[in-house]
Amino acid sequence: MSDRTYIDQACEQFRALLEEQLQRTEKMEAGSAPKDFASMDKITIGIIGGDGIGPIIMEQAERLLRKVMSDEIASGRIVLKKIEGLTIENRTALGKAVPDDVLAAIKSCDVLLKGPTTTPKGGTLESANVTLRRELDLYANVRPVQVPEEGIDWIFYRENTEGEYVLGSRGVEIPGKLSMDFKVTTEPGTRRIAKAAFDYAAANGKTSVTIVTKANIMKKTDGNFTRICHEVAADYPQIEADDWYIDIMTANLVNKDIRSNFQVFVLPNLYGDIITDEAAEIQGGVGTAGSANMGDRYAMFEAIHGSAPRMIEDGLGGYANPSSIFKAAEMMIRHIGFTDKADKLAAVLEECCEREKKVVVTGFPDGATCREFADYVMEKL
Ligand code: IPM
Ligand code: MG
Known about the structure:
Isopropylmalate Dehydrogenase, alpha/beta, 12 strands, binds magnesium ion, 2 domains, 45% helix, binds 3-isopropylmalic acid
């Protein structure tokens, strides 16, 4: 194919992408109302194993959930629904990031607890996470990180449905010469994540929200993200809004003199992805932080880390740390309205992970197994 043909095809593709993204913007502008769990007779929780260490940590997460919610499960108020088929083998065989029957089963649930799913590098198969976040419109990725002895109490509001991710599998290329990906920032998409962050800050007595971008370089997308966040901030005069660039913010997180001053962060998708792994590592490792993907109609809770295929290859799957998915389960229990149970589970997890630490998972045979750690947590409940 000649360069001219590539350019013509890319221009056509670009027009289609713009039209599609504009349509998405208009749909968002129509708005939607959040679910009221308190008024629901039955709440269906989808349980998705995932790949790699996913099924191993999810087996323990399901045991934990069955224990914490035993009364509600017995009464039928809570229903656990096992969803099979979201595995890398099945997804690659079908050439679908989320097979249709799996997506339909997922959409029949109210909330989801999900093990990590493997994302293929290159190729055209989209990440299952990205597909689910888009299909279920899970626009806020909420990731808390705490180091109590250092006074660190951070919460990240990562935009979860656009930015670098929404067209990440649909870039253009002139083979051997150049490639180009697209980043998308929309007005309503930014407004709703900013609002989520400021609402959280206002409801939880926080005094500042930190906006993180690279607006000096990504002038359109990040420039507008920053502007819109400041516009939203004007509705919250009691909360200070400051903005930083992502490069210096990654440095700030390892600067012990200032890092505990930050409270709530709001940031575009990719920066949020990267900095939350850094933050989780500061807390004690990516195996220790929970992650909530929130939308108005659905919410999906998961570990912050991936499927750790290397642990499986090395025969170490049984030593995977379930703390991250346990924290996700706690966030889910809180989200569906069982605050007391979530508080109790949070206190037990804090005791097991931060203070008593009688059973410690290291990821290797010198530490406890995933099941042993789960037993330790469950004994204390
Ligand atoms: C995360 C993960 C995902 C992401 C991957 C698995 C697609 O790293 O949830 O942070 O990049 O968002
Ligand atoms: Mg990540």
